[in-house]
Design brief:
The chain is α/β, with parallel strands linked by helices. The protein has two domains: 199 residues, Isopropylmalate Dehydrogenase, CATH 3.40.718; 138 residues, Isopropylmalate Dehydrogenase (3-Layer(aba) Sandwich). It is 40% helix and 19% strand. The chain contains eleven helices and twelve strands. The protein has a ten-stranded mixed β-sheet, with helices on both faces. Helix 6 links the parallel strand 8 and strand 9. Helix 10 crosses helix 11. The protein binds 3-isopropylmalic acid and magnesium ion. The site of magnesium ion has 2 residues, from helix 8. Magnesium ion binds next to helix 8.
Length: 359
């Protein structure tokens, strides 16, 4: 097939890991006979430096016209002092909103060989295989923001609102995913305090009636945070609102042992999706060639599956990553022996894709 893929390296280690994602896509194209056209664009601090805004209209148009978008990371100390609407992160939020990507899938699977990198005891990690479905274009992230003055000093507002349809579509997606997995949805909220959460709970219970094969449980976000550390294997699909999802998915990543291993897919009504590792721009290690590219490469597998419908290709990439991990070709965040460079890990995965038996 022919596909156009926008590459948004972004800031810090972003361009380094995206280069390895592209390398793997090139390997897939060669192995399976596809033609991928790459369109490099800027986002975040890189776009601010070049154009004065974290996402230009023309970049957004390129993304809308593409089949998929692969992104590295945005942000860094250089741009920290900028006002909210000019922060690098605003570019990412505008891209999610502009592409209508209301669902963010973040799978958490512990690789048995990497279990010793987790801060948790190995027995707490056995059989951990869950996926977060995070609502991505609503809630407090996109609510009205305001500052004013009272007689005591400054006051700030961030409005938290959810409309029923925003909850329903993401909860439905969680149920569909659970049907293809172990048949369990945990809907996470703070219904003992928040009105948005009470609406969330009502909608989730209603959607559950259409999916009798799936069991729905409701859980408060604070106890969910604890259960992730004590009984993570008891989760299958976790669906939650934007900010709770932001926080819980970093906790989920810590279970795996390295933020560098976690991929994500952001999806909406159309086929074009945004695929990115969940780690940040890691300015402290940027430019050193030591960042772990596996989160980006696993995001490439999600891209192949969700935006291009190339399931065998996605499986070939996942199998290649597994083989690379088994061979101990790992960057410093995971390596037990001599750490390998970002490029060496990307090259190893790519060559395993090319020599795999599939295709
Ligand atoms: C994430 C990140 C972003 C978010 C930031 C960079 C805006 O933390 O993708 O989880 O909060 O959504
Ligand atoms: Mg986050």
């Amino acid at each position: 097939m022919k596909a156009t893929i926008v590459l948004l390296g972004g800031d810090g280690i972003g361009p380094e890991v995206v280069a390895q994602g592209k390398r793997v896509l090139d390997a897939v194209a060669a192995k399976f006979g596809h033609t991928f056209t790459f369109v490099p664009e800027l986002i975040g601090g890189a776009a601010l430096d070049a154009h004065g805004v974290p996402l230009t209209d023309s970049t957004l148009v390129s993304c809308k016209e593409a089949n998929a978008v692969l992104l590295g990371a945005v942000g860094g100390p250089k741009w920290d002092a900028l006002p909210g609407h000019l922060r690098p992160e605003k570019g990412l939020l505008a891209l999610r909103k502009g592409l209508g990507l209301w669902a963010n899938l973040r799978p958490v699977k512990v690789h048995p060989l990497l279990a010793d990198k987790s801060p948790l005891r190995p027995e707490r990690l056995e059989n951990v295989d869950l996926v977060f479905v995070r609502e991505l274009t609503g809630g407090v992230y996109f609510g009205e923001k305001k500052r004013d003055q009272t007689e005591r000093g400054a006051r700030a507002f961030d409005a938290l609102t959810y409309e029923e349809y925003e909850i329903e579509r993401v909860v439905r997606l969680a149920f569909r995913l659970a049907e293809a997995r172990r048949g369990k949805v945990t809907s996470v909220d703070k219904a003992n305090v928040l009105e948005t959460s009470r609406l969330w709970r009502e909608v989730a219970s209603r959607v559950a009636k259409d999916h009798p094969a799936v069991t729905l449980e409701h859980q408060l976000v604070d106890s969910c945070a604890m259960r992730l550390l004590t009984h993570a294997a008891s989760f299958d699909v976790i669906v939650t609102e934007n900010m709770f999802g932001d926080i819980l998915t970093d906790e989920g990543a810590a279970l795996v042992g390295s933020l560098g291993m976690m991929p994500s897919a952001s999806l909406g009504d159309g086929r074009v999706g945004l695929f990115e590792p969940i780690h940040g721009s890691a300015p402290d290690i940027a430019g050193k060639g030591i960042a772990n590219p596996l989160g980006t490469i696993l995001s490439v597998a999600m891209l192949l599956k969700h935006s291009l419908g190339l399931v065998a290709e996605a499986e070939a990439v996942e199998a290649a990553v597994d083989a690379t991990v088994r061979a101990g070709i790992l960057t410093g965040d995971l390596a037990s022996a001599t750490p390998k460079s970002t490029i060496a890990v990307g090259a190893d995965v790519s060559s395993r894709v090319v020599s795999s038996s599939k295709g």
